[in-house]
Structures are given as structure tokens and as C-alpha cells.
Amino acid sequence: MRRIVYLGRHLMLKSKYLDKLDNGRFTTIRLGIIRPKYREVFIHSGGMVVARARIVNVLYKRVSELTDEDAVTDGFISRDSLIDELRKIYGDVSSNDWVTILMLEVTDRIGHRDDGSVGLGPIDIARLALRYNVPMSEEERKILQELINEGSIRKAAIKLFGSFRGRVIIRRVVRRALKHLISMGVITDY
Fold it and tell me: pLDDT tens for residues 2-12?
């Protein structure tokens, strides 16, 4: 029996499975009981954030209950090839082990776009900047954390600066964090 693992906002995907994102909807089968804390997650691959996705369904099965249909939906040719891959990734896998089938829908591909944006809002940029420890002052970190806590630039400006005019400062910090994320290779062209 594997322990329960809670999934936060970040889901890792091996780069060999990145083509799954092209379909818009995809599944990923993980060993163990995985309980998502959030409906929306960032997909990371190769040290970069490549997409934002919404978890649309979560199923739990024993390895022995997996079917060829589960395997094909997940991009494998058969149940046996899926189980072989699970063994390569996790080591010993028994027929009695639990797996979690996460069904996701890509809501945004992330990277440079022709219009200059990257497909992320200010709160998403703040979360990623703090997660990847971009170089910044403690004051800037406090600003990004307050932006996350308040959920909007306007509310954070009022709380931090006593006026919505502080939005200019917050936007400047967010732009700087985004530049660092791009220069660090966390966000890249797609």
C-alpha cells in the first residue's frame, strides 16, 4: 500500500510525453493515491513551465484493474506497455498497488507569444517567481506574496501601500520577476 500524496499546483511531466499537451485533453497515470489540492495546475517539463491545465477528473484503480483502454488513453499501445513504463519510473509495482488517473485539460500553453505575452497572469507569475526563487529583494518577495494572498493587484496595493496607486510598483515587480523567469529558462518559447 502506497501512502497518499497531495498534489499542489505543480505537476511534472517527462519531456517524452509533451506531445500529450497538443491534444488539449490528456491523462497521466501515477502510482499511488494522489489527491489534488487545486483544480488548476502548472505542467513542468525539462525544468520549464510549459502549460497550465485544469484537472477535470480523478480516478483510482488497482494496477490489476487497469485496462487496454486506460493505456491507450494515456498514450500507450497496451496495458502491458503502460505497466512496463510504470515499473521503469517507480521500480517495483505490484498488481495490488493503487494508481491515480488524472484527466487534464490544457487551458494555456506557456511561453513567448507573438503578442509579447506569455499566457500568465500576475498572480501566476508571482507564484512561479517564488517557487523558482528568482533573485529579488525581500521587499519584492513580500510584494509578490501579498499579491498571491490578496488575489488581485488592486487589493494588494491597498493593503501594502494604502492606496490603489501602488499598483504601478506591483506591476513593476511582476514584470521584473517575469524577466527573471524567462532568463532562467523557466518560461521559454514553444
Answer: 678 899 888 98
* Nearest one of 101, 83, 130, 168 to 156, comparing CA atoms: 168
Q: Cell for 52? A: 497550465
pTM of the model: 0.66
Phi, psi for 60 (deg, rounded to 5) = -120, 130
Identify the burial level of 89 via C-beta atoms within 10 angstroms of its C-beta, where 0-12 means exposed, 13-18 middle and 19 or more buried: exposed
Q: What residue type is assigned to position 76 of the chain? A: F
Q: How many Cα atoms occupy the beta-carbon half-sphere of 143 within 13 Å?
A: 23
Q: Please give the grid coordinates belonging to residue 124.
A: 501566476
Which residues 6+ apart lie within 8 Å of 114 measured at CB?
none
Cα-to-chain-centroid distance, residue 41: 4
C-alpha cell at 23: 491534444
185 φ, ψ (degrees, to nearest 5)? 85, 10
Collapsing DSSP to helix, strand or coil, 104 comes out as strand
Tens digits of residue pLDDT in 175-187: 899 889 888 888 7
Which residue has cell 488513453?
A: 73
Grid coordinates standing for 134? 528568482
Q: For residue 50, is it left (φ>0), alpha (ψ between -120 and 50) or beta?
A: alpha
